[in-house]
Amino acid sequence: MMLLKGSIHVTTIFLALVSSFVSTTTATSPSTAAAAAPAPGLGLALHRWYIHIFNNMSQGEVLTTHCKSKDDDLGIRKIFPRNEWNWTFKENFFQTTLFWCYLAKDKVHHAAFEVFSENEELQNSCDYKHCRWEAREDGFYLFNIPKNQAELRYKWQP
Ligand SMILES: *[C@@H]1O[C@H](CO)[C@@H](O)[C@H](O)[C@H]1NC(C)=O
Ligand SMILES: *[C@@H]1O[C@H](CO)[C@@H](O)[C@H](O)[C@H]1NC(C)=O
């Protein structure tokens, strides 16, 4: 009985300590958050990107695309041989922008991937401005601007 009372008492003290710690943390966090949201984030919020999709297929195939983000459906588009389609957007404040495309070269061969995401390697290849995706006979290439070369990223799926 003594032991039980003692442990209840200890638990009560512990909970009191925890709740005082929690309330202290809660009280200070808004000012911390305000102090930690300065100008650099605002600069990035206005960062403009361009996504390009080139139909560089050599056999005259029409490239069908359907690209979307969380907020926008860019619709179904057909890109004729040696043509390009592109769109531009400003990265959102929270830097969670993502564009995803379904692409098809005929009734069988298709690819589906993120043409833009918060992937550092992808953004670096785009030189923080222009993501140049290129459809070729074997798949999708991303033009790596710093390296000045197109790199095969996704093969057509049967
Ligand atoms: C293919 O796409 C690239 C973009 O990466 C473009 O600069 C180039 O002119 C295109 N090449 C051909 C052969 O159409
Ligand atoms: C976007 O594509 C069009 C062709 O559809 C082209 O005329 C234009 O120059 C492209 N814009 C950029 C910024 O590359």
TrEMBL record:
- Principal place of residence: secreted
* Sequence intervals crossing the membrane: none
List, in alphabetical order, the GO biological process terms annotated in this UniProt record: rejection of self pollen
Provide the leader sequence positions.
Answer: 1-27
Record GO cellular component, one term: extracellular region
Where found?
Secreted
Which Pfam families does the protein's record reference?
A: Self-incomp_S1
Q: Which UniProt keywords apply?
A: Secreted, Self-incompatibility, Signal
Q: What highest taxon heads this organism's lineage?
A: Eukaryota
Q: Which family does it belong to?
A: Belongs to the plant self-incompatibility (S1) protein family.
What is the name attached to this protein's record? S-protein homolog
What is the species listed in this Swiss-Prot or TrEMBL entry?
Answer: Corchorus olitorius
